[in-house]
Structures are given as C-alpha cells and as structure tokens.
Design goal:
The protein is mostly beta strands. It is built from one helix and eight strands. The chain has one helix at 70-75, and strands spanning 12-23, 29-45, 48-52, 55-59, 61-67, 79-83, 86-96, 101-108. A six-stranded antiparallel barrel has the order 1-2-5-8-7-6. Strands 3-4 form a two-stranded antiparallel ribbon. The longest helix has 6 residues, at 70-75. The chain is globular. It starts with 11 loop residues before the first strand and ends with a strand. 15% of the residues are buried.
Amino acid sequence: MNDKIKIGSLNRSVMLKTISITESDTGEDVPLEVNFKQVWASLDDLSGSEDADGKIIALNVRKYVIRYIKEVVISGVEMLVVDEDGTYNITSVQQLGRKNFLLLKCRKRE
C-alpha cells in the first residue's frame, strides 16, 4: 500500500459497530451490536480459497483504510465493520502515518 493515501480513495461508506453484553429476561448474557460510527473507507478485497485437509475453504478477507479514530485504536479488534456486502470482524488495527489513517484487517463474520 502506498505511503500516501488520497482522501478521494475513501469512497465506501461503512458502519463501525461495538458489541455490548446485555442481560436477557432469563438472566442470560446476550451480545448486542451497537452502532458506533459511520465512516468513509477504502477497500482492498483479499478474498480467495484455501485447500485444507483436502477441502476447499472460502476465505473472505478484506482490508479497510479509514481516518484515524482513537477509540478504534484502543478497542478495534472488539468491533465489527458492516458494509453492503456483509459484516466483518476486525482482526487487527494498524496505524498508518502519525494519527492520520488506520488499516483494519477484517474477516467475514460467519
């Protein structure tokens, strides 16, 4: 990826969500998706397939670049990215530049 990111490349609107644990009527802990922030992102789709133990496994991996958000740096791996193609778990957050952009590596939620 280039060292310089052009702001015009952030052309995809995505929703960042957090997961909160709430208690149901029966006292059971239930995960609840809560909208955190709507952001503009660039997308790099790294989807493919992999042969493991003679089986074909579809991998749906993506990289999103967004503007720097402090809360995403702190707890990004506990967040979700939702775009028009589905919901993705954030597996890692990498800072690009000095508080300019973030690279989110994501995997399709199953």
